[in-house]
Prior knowledge:
Elements: E1 6-10, E2 17-21, E3 33-35, H1 60-69, E4 74-79, H2 81-84, H3 90-106, E5 113-117, H4 131-140, E6 148-151, H5 154-162, E7 167-171, H6 176-184, E8 192-196, H7 203-210
Parallel strand pairs: 3-4, 3-6, 4-5, 6-7, 7-8
Antiparallel strand pairs: 1-2, 2-5
Amino acid sequence: MPxxxxxxxxxxxxxxxxxxxxxxxxxAGRAALFLDxxxxxxxxxxxxxxxxxxxxxxxxxxxxxxANRRGIPVVMASNQAGIARGYFGWDEFHQVQAxxxxxxxxxxxxxxxxxxxxxxxxxPDRKPSPGMFRKAAQxxxxxxxxxxxxxxKTSDLEAARAAGLPGGVLVLTGHGARHQARGLTLGTxxxxxxxxxxxxxxxxxxxxxxxxxxx
Length: 215
């Protein structure tokens, strides 16, 4: 089990922010659950930056808690273009993120690693580019070849596919409904795409992630 030691700050000169719980050594070699934030874990609010606008999507905390109890590393990877656009700053982001983690904790759930990319428009760490996925996998020595993503945009799936993940779940919350048709076209023999009404409908994925490597 991870301890309560938290490491937070900018990961590199590219100013990608990260927050890690513990040293993540326990996560080495495990398949991770990658999550987008807005529209997947919390209700979509354009450029969410006020705590009073934060609302968890029903079932999200329970889903994350089940992943925690099954020993699945939970990684949140979030584009935060509102910072680059000047709509809000890091202080507002930190306040929202702290409240999100507090609410998850109250529900018996936690995020093991969070990455946030503030860049816009193009950047190697901004989804659909795979930078955040690759950095998370490197930091925690994750098995990217067995990890999956849950997102509400095609950019989440595209980033996961480019990072070598074998699949992604597109949820219909957030922006998911209008991304469904395009998202399904991203499926290949090497990258599975599934669609669920919300994160709560993806419980089947936890069985797959918790299973050990196939011989």
